[in-house]
Amino acid sequence: MKTTSTSLAFLLLVIASSSAAPNPSVSEYTAQGAPSHPKVQVAWNRYHRHSEATQILKDLAKTFPDLCRLTSLGKSFDGKEMWVLTVTNFKNGDPDKKTGMWIDGGIHANEVQATEVVLYTAWFLAESYGKSPFITRLLDQRTFYLMPMMSPDSRDAHFDEPNTTHSPRSGQRPVDDDLDGLVDEDKPDDIDGDGNIVTMRRRDPNGRYKPHPKYPEWLVEAEPDEKGEYTILGSEGIDNDGDGKVNEDGDGYYDPNRDWPWNWQPDYIQNGAYRYPFSILENRMVGDFILAHPNIAGNQSYHNTGGMILYGPGALDDSFQKSDVDLFKMIGTRGEKMLPGYKTMNIAKELYVVYGGEVDWLYAMLGMWPFTNELFTPFNLFRESKGGGFFANAEDLHRFDRFLLFGDGTVPWHEVDHPQYGRIEVGGFKKNWVRQPPSFLLEEECHRNMAFSFYHADQLPMVVVDSIASRDLGQGLIEVTAVISNARALPTHSAQDSAKKITPPDEVTLTGKDITVQASFWSTSPAFTDPHITRKNPGTALVDNVPGMGAVYVRWLVKGAGPFSVTVDSVKGGTAQLTK
Amino acid sequence: MTRWVICISLSTALSGIMADSGAIPGYTSDAAFADRVRKLSSPPLATVESLAKSEGGRSVDLIKIGDDAQSPKPALLVMGNVVAPHIVGSEIALGMAEWLIAHADEEAVKKLLEVRTLYIIPRPNPDGTERFFGSPRHEVDGNARRTDDDRDFSTGEDPPNDLNGDGFITVTRMEDPTGEMIAHPSDPRILIPADSKKGEKGLYRVLVEGTDEDKDRLWNEDGAYGVSFNRNFTAKYPYFGIGAGPNQVSEIESRAIADFCFNHPNIAAVLVFTPEDNLYFPWKPGGEEKIKTKVQPDDAPLQEYLAKKYQELHGGKEPPPSPEGAGSFSDWSYLHFGRWTFAARAWWIPPAPKDEKPPADDKSKETADKSKDEEKQKKEKDDREALALRALKWFEEQKIDGFVPWAPINHPDFPDRKVEVGGFKPFLRLNPPISEIPSLVEKHAKFLSEISSALPKLSMGDMTVTPQGGGVYRVRINIVNTGLLPTRSQMGSINGIPSPINWELSLGGNAKLLTGNKRGQIAVLKGNGGNAELEWLILAPGADDQKPKFKASSPSVGQVEHVIELERKS
Fold first, then answer.
1. Contact list, B249 vs chain A (CB under 8 Å)
2. Which residues from B are below 8 Å from A500, CB to CB?
3. CB–CB of A244 and B336 under 8 A?
4. Within 13 Å, how many C-alpha atoms sit on residue B323's CB side?
5. Is A340 an 8 Å CB contact of chain B?
6. Whole-angstrom distance, CA of residue A484 vs CA of residue A567
7. What domain range is B532 assigned to?
């Protein structure tokens, strides 16, 4: 394990001391937050490539065999494993019958911290079980399916190949983006070989750009009545194929988050759509896994950037069911408190239109409760609210770079020889700055977002048999009435789920020794004003939905005597039983 | 949500045939069909390839005709029965392949294959097609995937049943106070909805033939019929619809064929056999909608021109209306794949021959007379369900036993009621007697040539080389589309899926470009002389032996090459 490769000495110190055994004779003073003596050592202030992330997952699975299981959904285009870590108390119930929470990150691989948040979540859950009563209860009741790297090929491409903070958003399948018959023939070119794709400029007495007076690395437009010093030549690159365009056909380009079936539209409507839904192999593996796990009720996807808690729909001509939107907003609003600087937003109305996004599919076609968080907010730079936007403004980014990163966020302008433009200069932000938190904010980002996902996971439906009452109706007939409640905010069936008949009804079954059930019915009212009579097999009432923080009432007419057992089996709300 | 629950029949003379010879004798089932396909393999002229193996273990086959090993040629794709019960499409598509291979030495075919490659996928949904040969006969679409058709969380719990044991799933009728149907005044065998405006009162309740297996008072609501190939594509996809599948392009067959198409950018046009007919019912152009669902205004007249050619070749009259597609292959092929798309029903039960009339000189007068005549006829007889009436009449003429006469049965769900089974036998209204296939094959093979000759063609137009002195040359060239159709459809230009024209200039020796680029693109050239001009300044000292080479091409259009003589030798 490479846990000590951080360059920050004080963190080395913390790790060194925490890994030492505590002295039993001295009471220890621990910081709140992450476990202080983790069995699996990970530095949460750095980024992990696919092989390192794989090692963390393997270590967790090995160290916590009753809590973590590692499976691969298959191999990516470049042959990398598509890891899913299932985290739950495997000794308490069938993991695939417990209410499930799917958490993924890095579908846009350049949005690197998304992966760290998912890894941190896995680590925190496993390390905290048995120590934190809340986490212990969560893992006893829920199953977490964690997929830290949705686009593993491009994660390594971002680490290892010349890129900007914005690339690669696509996967690594070769695609002829410009339909010129050549594939990926004009990628960006790292002219100075430093691993960063930055900006090219030429000193030019007639240029219209000049260095910013306070932050000279920042090139700004000259005033209309002022002489400039530079001409901007675009992003670092060469016209490799002689078509007069620079960098027009690199990685991809398809967008893995425009590849999901609900409201899918082709590329001319939705830029980045590939051939058809799930035409990207990695996504199809994820889709198949989620379809095979109908117990998954909640979903959290991580992206960057801008500090947003996003819910669907992604298209303006689409609408989600009102009662579901109210619940998305409720959970999001709780999240805003945990995530300072984050705002709960609808994708289509408040961000931009997305056809064929992952969250839309999870909600509209599977009836689940998905959120997308855009990690890292401009607010975090100086803890000042400056309105919306994905990125901090250029001045803040340069100021932060100078005073907190000591200039390491920028490639200083320097001269290079360009085969087409001659002697020019290149410079600008490095690929690991702008969208990603620096080391000292990364761990905070991980923890706060994880906390939000735990709140969400805890609010997923949880069925309970509140009570069983019986009454003799005479002539050997007994009326048994059970109150089935949902102890959490989210219903067992979202309104969309009910409307489209996606998830089977909740089964409420009465059993007892030598009893015969003659008939049964259920109602949303204790007075049974709207009875739903069971058509087949009266022992099991099929309940459409148990509302959040609410109840339904089930009644059986029975021959025979108690005790009676009532079992609830809800695909998304878990199972519960009571005998009386 | 339309399922192909149209029913049909067999002539008495033919009803003694063995079960596996199909709903209409002569049609080719699974293994025999695969044999016929494999027999066509005769490289380099024709090759056969399996695109996928279906869930039922059947091969989705592709026949490729035309030797394009040297350089890929613009291709025509022919799709057989995208709607499984419409098996005539399958027979015609395979028949076309056989016909073209058999006539490969004839001038017209030779000419076609010189410039085009043909891709023929005769049976896109082989599992679903087998129902034509199954027992009991039931005219439904869908593949072998077991689907929960009524979304009640159990699969296939209430399929239809052959109550009278005649080997056909037809319908039952029962006198019932809730009944909405009555016997047709013109032919009591046919049932029509009672029209209260005419003072009619419903008499019969009509159900698909079968029992209520799951006792939910719904009859035959879930036969687990699988996913329909022609409802599984991305354009106008019917989310949550019966037969639509869990999502777009979810099936083995649809995915293999979509990928085949995307992997063959040389496909220029598509001929698809389907009841969604755009050859007798050309698509109406759409407005300014952002998400396109209609043929684009520039494409409509060109599609219509070829539709007219088709009608001349086909000669059929009064076709049944074309159903709206949802997730259909032909909508996808045009709207999302961007190709010229021709959708042919190919065959329908013809109208009864009209009384012979003396030929009129004035054609418009003739049409007017005809429609007046028809109106008069309408007043005289009740022509509701005219196509059903037409079918009964035609069955009689052809001596086809296509209708199960209403006869009482004991329906287990209605023990004390009078229930009758009857109705059209499956498949016989959708598919012709096998004897009609050869002429349909020839007509459609000829139509392929019509499509082919309308396709765009690149050639070099005027060009000038002006020596500027000092080894500097101004070169202007012009590239022209001499075909009828533009180099890509308007829809193709919008969706960006078909390729634009790519050009390339290769300089020899030490020549170099002073202006312009070595490579570039032309988005589209209109049909009938659409052209584009390119210009460069080239520095070529000692130009005598330097001949820059210009090449322009698009996979679906073809290519043109030209050697530029900088110094003309006199």
1. 275-279
2. 151, 240
3. no
4. 14
5. no
6. 10
7. 458-563
Q: Which of B431, B432, B410 is nearest to B419 (CA)?
A: B410
pLDDT in tens, chain A (580 residues): 444 444 444 444 444 444 555 566 678 899 999 999 999 999 999 999 999 999 999 999 999 999 999 999 999 999 999 999 999 999 999 999 999 999 999 999 999 999 999 999 999 999 999 999 999 999 999 999 999 999 999 999 999 999 999 999 999 999 999 999 999 999 999 999 999 999 999 999 999 999 999 999 999 999 999 999 999 999 999 999 999 999 998 877 899 999 999 999 999 999 999 999 999 999 999 999 999 999 999 999 999 999 999 999 999 999 999 999 999 999 999 999 999 999 999 999 999 999 999 999 999 999 999 999 999 999 999 998 876 678 899 999 999 999 999 999 999 999 999 999 999 999 999 999 999 999 999 999 999 999 999 999 999 999 999 999 999 999 999 999 999 999 999 999 999 999 999 999 999 999 999 999 999 999 999 999 999 999 999 999 999 999 999 999 999 999 999 899 999 999 999 999 999 9
Same domain, A367 and A499: no
Nearest CA to B187 among B388, B5, B408, B348? Answer: B388
Range list of β-strands (E), B331-471: 340-344, 403-409, 419-424, 458-469
Provide, as residue numbers in chain B, all residues whose Cβ is less than 8 Å from the Cβ of A291. 246
Interface contact flag, A268 B215, Cβ < 8 Å: no
Contact A268 B495 (CB under 8 A): yes
Task: List residues of B whose CB lies inside 8 A of any A CB.
Answer: 151-153, 214-216, 233-234, 237, 239-240, 246-250, 255, 258-259, 262, 265, 290-291, 336, 494-497, 499-500, 502, 516-521, 553, 555
Residue A389 lies in a domain: no
Judge if B376 and B466 occupy the same domain. Answer: no
Domain check: are B192 and B269 in the same one? no
Please say whether the dihedral angle defined by the alpha carbons of residues A486, A487, A492 and A494, taken in this order, is positive or negative: positive
CA A288 to chain centre: 18
Q: Are residues B211 and B237 in the same domain?
A: no
Question: Do residues B115 and B73 touch, judged by C-beta distance below 8 A?
Answer: yes
ipTM greater than cut 0.95: no
Type of residue numbered A463: V
Among B214, B248, B291, the residue with its CB nearest the CB of A269 is: B291
A244·B239 Cβ contact <8 A: no
Domains contained in chain B, number: 3
Give the whole-angstrom CA distance, residue B432 versus residue B351: 14
Q: With a threshold of 0.95, does the pTM exceed it? A: no
User: CB distance A262–B239 less than 8 Å?
Assistant: yes
